[in-house]
Amino acid sequence: MTYHFLYRNGFLITNRPLSNKIPDILHWKELNVAGYSIYTDETVDVYHRRYNDVDIVLIGIVLNPFSKISNPKKILINLCQKFAYSNDRFFDYLDMLSGRFVIFIRSKAQSYIIHDAAGNRSVFYDISDTNHVFVSSHAQLIADLKHYKIDADIRKFMESVDFKNHLDSHLPGVLTPYQNIDLLTPNTLLDLNKYKVKRFFPREPLLGQKVTDQLAEELGALFTNQMDLLRKKYKLSLSLTAGVDSRLSLAAAKKHKNSIHYFTYTTDIKKSLEKDAQAAQKLCHLLNLHHQAIECNQQPDKEFFNLYVKNSAYLASWKRVLIGKGLYSVYPKGLLHVKSNVSEIGRAFYRRKYDLPNKISADIYASLYPIKGDRTFICNAFKQYIQQTELNSQKIFNYDPYDIVYWEYRIGNWQSLVLLETDIIHNTYILYNNRSILKKLLSVPLADRINDTLYIQMIKHMWPDVLQIPINPHKTIKRKRLR
Q: Phi/psi at 143 (nearest 5 deg)?
């Protein structure tokens, strides 16, 4: 079988037009904007507008759940107007946007690349030559164009047994397999004039608030608004587990419950997935919804394996290839996948799992990295991440640094990589992927975040019936001490 999915849903932005396109992207569209060439896969939506000598290009899916706007052209006009007024107005508006997108801005004074709240649309950039810009959705595409080889130390780390066998295989910090290619993390932008990463969020302290019915209703409306806007444009699927994250997404879909495809994938390599599927099937049966359990145990052929891992710059574990093959074989074509992972940012993921010290450091962040390996290598990667993203108390105000590092490194790295891999199967949209929504989720007391108080209250407000099945009945959390 011949597969045609290398760099699916991808983009490339460069100020050096490709005279000889590589075969893998011959079918891509080309847009020339202010001295830059923007190449995009035929599956990607691209919008461009020039306003007061400023060019803004929007790549991907975008919604504004606050003003209920799903038209990308209208959102682009608003972005242009806000940018013309001030950077602060622009960033405030950007915070309100949901979706999976990249924005390229070019003016006489400023040029930069910025992406969605949690970096669901991956951005990789070449650091070897600041005069020649190469920014892409795929690190491997840049490596192909520049003829880079995987760094020897990183290759050694990637070839370890622990890395190869870990379902969540990814590199620490902002590393990619290539020494000359870095990952752009959420809440930072790439300044193309100075070719430097700059932090733009947070811009003010987080305002604490109590969990109230009013807050639950306000947030619930933002979730249901997104489902309403999505359903007008797309046919949808919703992946379900036994957890609270997808349960809230399901509650937001109540109005459209009978027009959505529900599924859970299972595999022999992780038994908890089977229990997730059982809980999801039971819940859907009670709600009279059709649910599909997709078994991902079919060994991929050599061609599929090679293309799949190349899409992720060879970071995908064989376990994820197995899941990808299972989904590729049976997932209904043409459905936008609604997923729920970003929610853990608001649920104090690290604090609920670990008894964490107050003093933070690269060494502590290295302890949170889930894959065993060379401790010095991992720690140095997090030192680079801290320095490059200006992750310090002055820049993040009163935000919990453990929330920020989970948001930017864990979700912005591992989760965006998983989405990049599954682009061969479907495009993905995450309801939680909105900076203003995440701010609200982070604003409530830590105990409420650990106990999912606000999430449960939101579900009760939107569709209490989805709580008929207990949340994660097969999982228990034992907090570990990190030193």
A: -60, -40
pLDDT of residue 476: 61
**Residue 272 and residue 473: Cα distance in Å, rounded?**
11
| Distance in angstroms (rounded) separating the CA atoms of residues 38 and 30 | 6
The CA distance from 303 to 14, in Å, is 30
Walk across the sheet containing 335-339 and list its strands: 291-295, 260-266, 235-239, 335-339, 428-430
Closest CA to 453 of 212, 242, 280: 212
- Report how far residue 422's alpha carbon sits from residue 340's, in angstroms, rounded to the nearest whole number: 15
Residue 30: its pLDDT value, please? Answer: 93
Rounded to 10°, the helix 318-330/302-311 angle is: 110
**Separation CA 2–CA 181 (nearest Å):** 30
**DSSP label at residue 468:** S
Q: What is the pLDDT of residue 21?
A: 66
Going by C-alpha positions, the residue among 85, 102, 112, 117 that lies closest to residue 39 is: 102
Q: Tell me if residue 29 falls in helix, strand or coil.
A: strand
Q: What confidence tens digit (pLDDT) does each residue in 390-410 have?
A: 998 899 999 999 999 999 999
Q: According to the CATH classification, is domain 11-199 in 3.60.20.10?
A: yes
The token pair that represents 140 in the structure block: 């491997």
* Under-70 pLDDT residues of the chain: 1, 20-21, 268-273, 474-483
CA dihedral 136, 323, 402, 192 (to 10 degrees): 0
In the chain, CATH 3.60.20.10 covers: 11-199
**C-alpha span between 470 and 13 (Å, rounded):** 47
> 213-346+410-481 domain in CATH 3.40.50.620?
yes
The token pair at 402 is 């453990």
What residue type is assigned to position 193 of the chain? N
476 exposure class (CB count in 10 Å sphere: 0-12, 13-18, 19+): exposed
CATH 3.40.50.620 intervals, the chain: 213-346+410-481
